[in-house]
Each structure stands twice: as structure tokens, then as C-alpha cells.
Design brief:
Two copies of one chain form a homodimer. By secondary structure, the first copy, chain A, is α+β, with helices and mostly antiparallel strands. Helices cover 44% and strands 18% of the residues of chain A. The first copy, chain A, is built from 13 helices and ten strands. The first copy, chain A, has a five-stranded antiparallel β-sheet with strand order 7-3-10-9-8, with helices on one face. Chain A has a three-stranded antiparallel β-sheet with strand order 4-5-6. In chain A, strands 1-2 form a two-stranded antiparallel ribbon. In chain A, strand 1 (56-57) and strand 2 form a beta hairpin. The radius of gyration of chain A is 27 Å and the shape is elongated. The relative contact order of chain A is 0.14. Chain A binds chain B through residues 103, 105, 137, 139, 141, 143-144, 149, 151, 153, 157-163, 165, 222-223, 226, 236-238, 241-242, 246-247, 249, 252-253, 256-257, 260, 344, 348-349, 351-353, and chain B through 103, 105, 137, 139, 141, 143-144, 149, 151, 153, 157-163, 165, 222-223, 226, 236-238, 241-242, 246-247, 249, 252-253, 256-257, 260, 344, 348-349, 351-353. The structure holds a DNA duplex.
DNA sequence: CTTGGCACTCGAGTGAGTAGAGTGCTAATA
DNA sequence: TATTAGCACTCTACTCACTCGAGTGCCAAG
């Protein structure tokens, strides 16, 4: 059977209406829509066709129709109208970002929270690094009697440090030597390249400072690894409960706990090579527990070799047009904010973390 | 009316049973308990008394009794049996702590998560500083052409840093001067004491480095404030849904969102001067939304002038004995862990945050 | 003081009956 | 040929009356 224009139109109206009402949609309701110039009977025929084609489902004989996963897929890909953000909406998104991003304490947590607020759905926010990180330069500062401070500037322009308690006193000259050796041998090297072999060589040439080398190396590897690992946050779980499909505790609990247990942690991988905004409808989600939910996600640019991703989780019946629009706009605003020159300090401020 | 021993015993049994079953308790059920040598009728009389004394409540005429807030209070303060942790329980708590605390990335988040796991309830974990923080010493490192790194060692032995981009070039000698001035004037000073007055004086004596002073001051104040502010995490919200009292979405949603919005943020204040384990029963909670829940919390010691607090939230009908025991043990284990010498690096590692 | 007995209350669960929304099919219509 | 009106049919959600049983309070006997 062929998918005529009219069939598409009917499908679109059904999905639109179902998104609004969360109730199965009947032929009468569709026929009554302003620009639908057909009788309920005609619509019924179309609906029967759409059902047999797999785009609609019927909870039971005398109920209206509900979109199937395939129906949503088609809707998302072809049918849905562009949602234009109102000035109010863009304004409030921008305000939220401006206001909240002053302190970059828990960046991803905050982004997730904001996205969740903007969409009224649980949200995820991830930052991951696209390239590997290395140390650009080491400094050693003598701090009081028995301790020194190791300062390392990373390839990302971030600066990290560690206070090292000395087991034995160390001379200023030895410290200088150690510093020179570190800078000569252990810069421009990523975490995986710190072999035992290298470490031995460094220790041999470090003189009195040799005993410090293992501590330094451990710290550096740990730091680089941490810098490279994805930083992820989920916020606003509770908003799922606002959706009529989660009025049954069982369902809600199953989904919420799977969110809590990090069911979303494989999303970044999905997004890796994609661009723009991506929608996963129901069964397309990898996790079993999220079979009845959809995910919308998009990338943004943090700058400094950091790649950001934000996404939301909701019932398959969610307002894809609106959510997609808000999410995209959000991503855009975030990208802008992170790359505004006067905000260049932000990623740096992260160095404290 | 007097609260006889037998009345207490009856009350204790009712609370115990209600905690187990979450169903109103009838006189028959109590009379059938092994060491209760009275008939249902007698128990009924006692229950009537306890009800008129305000320790019990009756959902409706023909239902059993349920403890009132006052009843729980009495139970917690006097009646409940000590809960002895089994070897299994202590073991698994210790294992969890050992295993998870290797990397101290998001300390409070992890603690909260663990506590929540150990108690099957939503948990909160807070770290707050008991004394105010000051800078102990400044260092300035020239990093490449146009930037310097400011390193500040705090009174807490933690080290923080910031990369500062220079608007104009600065000579090595000027940098030395600036460093000296900073160390002379801005150490041993807590966040509130950075007056505009002081800043002006510093700028006057800083020579070429004067333009950097505002940046430095802003960073320092921000850092000190951040160090002093409490660091808090809540985990395991979802576990509330496991409790029969939150089978109604409305209730669950109200409580969960208030948790999400930080309803617990005033708990640390409550705990400030208290010691040991504290229980807040129902209406004793300050927040309106938590009227029907109880909170159990206790302190632990992070060392380094840091004060920790862990707590859980649950229905007023919760197993106070068990929760209290596990929480106390948890706090004890955490204190031990944080103050073990070979783990002394942990709080230092936090310096990176 | 304790206990057995008894009438009473009230919620939870059951089952029949009804209203109404929606369908599929057929025959009439443009 | 495509559309529509009409109609019988299906199925759920809701209401209402009814019963069952757990639990109570009170009284009188032990």
C-alpha cells in the first residue's frame, strides 16, 4: 500500500493530537480539525490503512489509535512542523545560562539541570574530550619546610597541582634539576605513554629528586586520565512523574532507577559520529528499560578540545518538535557562551577542579 | 494518665510491627505476639489509652492503629531495641567504602550514593568547613609568553591555582615584587576581610603588577568562599518509590521534587551543634513538604578542618533502629578511612577541585 | 484488673448494569 | 471511483448496591 499525502497528513494530525492529549485519538476528533475536509468515515478508512501499515496501533477494539514506534519515527523524520521558539523561550534559556554559568563549579550538573528545566524532562549532559591531553610544562615550588608543590600546565591550558610531602629534605638545586628533567622527558606525552621504562630513565637522571618521581608520575597519569574521561551528569529525574504515562509507580520506578543507574551512559557513544540533533524512538534505545521512552540529543561545543552533549529522556509521546527546537537552541547558546572571548576564563577556571 | 511499662511495651510492639508491615496494627495481631500474655481485649484498652494520649492514631474507626509522630518520637528516644549490625552488613559497608573511595573525584556524591545503597533510602552527604579559610602563601610562575600561573596555598594545606592571561608583558622583577607584596598583605586573611581599602593599598605598592591585583583578589575571594561553602550531594531519590507510602504518584512526586530542589539544604545547620545521631520525625522537619517523612543523620570526621554529615530521608514509618545503626557505623568507617595515615593523600587530592 | 462476648462501623472488594466512544462494514451518493 | 452516511457491534470506564471481614468500644462476667 502506498503512503499517500493524505495518509501522511492524517498521521501527522494523530501524532500531534496524541502528543497534546496523551489519549488515543479517534476518527471524529481528526475529522473535526479545521483544515481536514473529510468525514470521520474517510478518516477511519485511512486510519485502518495506517494501522495495517504499522504506523498506528490500537490499544483495544473500541479505542482510538495511538502512534507506533514506526509512526513516531516517520513523524520525526518527515512530518513534524518546525517549532519556532518564542522570544520568551529564547530569552529565558539565555537568562538561565547567563545567570547560572557565572561560577563554573559543577558545570555539567548545572547544564543538565538547566536543560531539564527548559524541557520539563529528565536531562543528561556530558563533556568529553576529543583529543588526548598531555602536560605542557612542569613547575616545582618549595612550600615551607617539608613539602613542595607540583604545578603542571596541560595542553588544554588548564593548570593542576599537587602538594607533595617530602619524606626527606631536598635542596633547592636538586629541585631545579628534577624540574628540568621532568620538563625534558615527560611533557607532550599522553597518559598511555608513561611506561615503566621511561620512569626508570627519569629516575636515573633526577639525582636526589628520584624518590619523588613515582608520586609525580602517578599524579600526572591520574590527572590526564581524568581529563580525558567523560564527565557526565543527569538531572531532573523527577519530571518524568509529571507525564501521564508514568502515573503507575511500577513503570516510573523501573525507568527512574535505570536512569539512576546510568542507563544513559552509552548515549555519548551513539552521538559520537552523528551531527545535529538526533532522536531515538522507543525500541531504538539500546537499554531494555528504556524501551518505552524516547531520547533527543544534540552536541554543543565547549571549546578547548572539549565536546559537549545534552539530551533529554521522555515518553515516546513527547513533543518532539518543541523539545528538539529547545534543545538545539540550548546547544547553540551554550556553544556561543563557551566561545565568547570575555568568557574565555571559564574553561580555565575549571583548572581548579 | 500514666505511661505504664505495659503501655510502653504495647507501643513498642505496635511500632515494630507497623514498621515491618506498613499496615495499621490491630489488637489481635499484638496479642498474638509470643511474649505478649494478654488478650486482645486488654490490648484494646491499652491502645485506646495510647490513642487518647496522642501516641497512636486511627485512620478510620474500623482500622487498626498507626503510630503518631509523638509515638515515633517516644519509640526512637526510649523504646527501640538496639539493632546489631551483622558481620555481613559491616563487611559490605567497609567493602563499599574501600572500593569506591580509591578515586576521590566526586567525594560527596559517592558517599551519598553509598549511604543510599546501605540504607535503601535517599541519602544526603555534606562536607562543610568548621573554620574559615585563608591563603597561607602565594607563588607566581611565568608560563610562556603572555601568561602567568598564580598558585595559592591555603590554610587547609590545599593548593589552588589560576592561569592569568596578561594584557601587557610583565618583567620577571615586577613579578617578584608582586609576589612579595601579595605574601606580605594578603595572607592570613579570610574572604570577608578583602576590603576595597586593602586592595587599593596593595595596588599602590605593586608597581607594574598592579593591574593584576583585581584578578588575583577576585580569584582568591571566590576560592575561599567556595572552600567554606558546604559541598552537598543527594543520591538515590528513587528508592523512596520502593516504600509503600509512596505508591501514590502525587505524594511521591511532591517529596521527590522537594528533595530535588534542595529541601535538605538546611539539615547541616540543624546538625551544627548536635552530636551523635539525630532523628527528625515528621513534623519536626522544617520543610512543609517533608512533613510526612523522617530524617536520620549523623556526623563524621573528614579531617583537615572538614566536617562531614550523612543522613537519609524516609517515610516516618522507617526502621529507625536499623537505619540508625547502619548510619552510625557508616560514619564511623568513613571517619576511620579519612584519618588513616596512608590515605592522607585523599584530602590533598581534593586540592585539585 | 482481665477477659469473653457482642453489636457496630467502615473500607475493600465484587458483580451487574449503563453510557459512550470508537470501530468496521455496507450501501448510497457525488 | 472516491467519499460519506448509517448502523450494528465491541469494549472500557464508571456507578451503585451489596457483602465480607477486620477491628473497635463497651459491658458484664470471671
Amino acid at each position: 500500500m502506498e503512503l499517500t499525502e493524505r495518509k501522511k497528513k492524517v498521521l501527522r494530525c494523530i501524532v500531534d493530537l496524541y502528543i497534546r492529549t496523551a489519549e488515543p485519538v479517534g476518527s471524529k476528533a481528526i475529522a473535526q480539525l479545521p483544515d481536514m475536509n473529510y468525514s470521520p468515515a474517510t478518516i477511519r478508512n485511512e486510519m485502518a490503512d495506517l494501522t495495517s501499515m504499522g504506523y498506528l496501533e490500537q490499544p483495544h477494539t473500541s479505542a482510538g489509535r495511538v502512534p507506533s514506534a514506526a509512526g513516531y519515527r516517520l513523524y520525526v523524520d518527515e512530518l513534524m512542523a518546525d517549532y519556532r521558539l518564542s522570544l520568551d523561550e529564547t530569552q529565558s534559556i539565555n537568562d538561565a545560562i547567563e545567570e547560572k554559568m557565572q561560577r563554573v563549579d559543577k558545570l555539567m550538573e548545572k547544564v543538565a539541570r538547566l536543560v531539564s528545566q527548559a524541557t520539563d524532562l529528565p536531562a543528561i549532559s556530558v563533556a568529553s574530550r576529543s583529543a588526548s591531553v598531555t602536560v605542557k610544562r612542569f613547575d616545582l615550588i618549595k612550600a615551607g619546610e617539608g613539602s613542595i608543590i607540583l604545578v603542571a600546565m596541560l595542553s588544554t591550558e588548564e593548570v593542576v597541582n599537587k602538594l607533595i610531602k617530602l619524606p626527606v629534605a631536598i635542596e633547592e638545586t636538586d629541585l631545579k634539576l628534577l624540574g628540568a628533567v621532568l620538563n625534558a622527558t615527560m611533557t607532550q606525552i599522553c597518559a598511555d605513554e608513561f611506561t615503566p621504562n621511561l620512569m626508570e630513565r627519569v629516575m636515573n637522571s633526577a639525582g636526589m629528586g628520584a624518590s619523588l618521581v613515582p608520586v609525580v608520575v602517578e599524579f600526572v597519569i591520574d590527572t590526564l586520565r581524568r581529563q580525558e574521561s567523560a564527565n557526565m551528569a543527569v538531572a531532573g529525574h523527577v519530571r518524568l512523574l509529571e507525564q501521564p504515562e508514568y502515573q503507575s509507580i511500577d513503570k516510573a520506578q523501573r525507568v527512574l532507577s535505570s536512569l539512576d543507574e546510568g542507563a544513559l551512559s552509552n548515549l555519548p557513544a551513539v552521538m559520537q559520529n552523528a551531527s545535529g540533533t538526533k532522536v531515538l524512538v522507543g525500541p531504538e534505545n539500546i537499554t531494555e528499560e528504556l524501551k518505552d521512552t524516547s531520547v533527543v540529543m544534540t552536541k554543543f561545543d565547549i571549546g578547548d578540545g572539549l565536546q559537549g552533549m545534552i539530551g533529554v529522556v521522555g515518553p515516546t509521546r513527547m513533543d518532539y518538535a518543541k523539545v528538539t527546537a529547545r534543545l538545539s537552541y540550548f546547544a547553540e547558546s551554550l556553544s556561543k557562551m563557551f566561545n565568547k572571548p570575555e568568557q574565555a576564563q571559564l574553561p580555565t577556571a575549571e583548572a581548579e577542579e
